[in-house]
Amino acid sequence: MTDDTPTAPEGRQSGTRQRIQQVALELFAEYGYDKTSLREIAERLGVTKAALYYHFKSKEAIIAAVFEEILEEMDGFIAWTKTQPRTSTARQQIAQRYVESSKGASSVMRLFQENGPAMRELKVGEQMRDRLIDLVNTLTPEHASVPDKLRIRIALFAVQLSRFSMQDVPVEELDAAIVEVVFELLDRVSWE
């Protein structure tokens, strides 16, 4: 029995779902979300469309599954951030945790950036936007100046942009630089 059959044991189904998500992301990156069909995903996987349909009824369901873990991690990060004091040490920890948590999401965020119009129309796009707004609001002091609001937004959005546009830099070196810059921007914000 193979991974792609509907009768596969639960653990193997999970592996199949992950493989479907991975292949779908590859195709979405190659051709775009709108121009990729379930048939093409099934063909790349070497399974029938019915086998794919058993696991996911639509491309949106695949995207929702991909983003589910990211959204859960963001929720945890935002909740943790809300409990942190607004000290320089806490801002350093926020910067480090945000950069660390963004590592696994870089290919998904790239998909989001490259397929913006399509992603914005999906429920998951709205959920992602809402989480990012919540994070920005969590880090923005009530009486923040416009430059401080801009620093916070640049700090957060620069993380994914850097991962996307600086792939020629070794990951460890890039992560250290991102943490440094994010912290510098957050530390310049007036928190009183």
From TrEMBL:
DNA-binding region: 37-56
Ranges where the HTH tetR-type domain occurs: 14-74
A Pfam family that the UniProt record links to this protein: TetR_N
Keywords in alphabetical order: DNA-binding, Transcription, Transcription regulation
Record-linked InterPro entries: DNA-bd_HTH_TetR-type_CS (IPR023772), Homeodomain-like_sf (IPR009057), HTH-type_TetR-like_transc_reg (IPR050109), HTH_TetR (IPR001647)
PANTHER family according to UniProt: HTH-TYPE TRANSCRIPTIONAL REGULATOR BETI (PTHR30055:SF234), HTH-TYPE TRANSCRIPTIONAL REGULATOR RUTR (PTHR30055)
Name of the protein described by the UniProt record: TetR family transcriptional regulator
Organism: Fodinicola feengrottensis
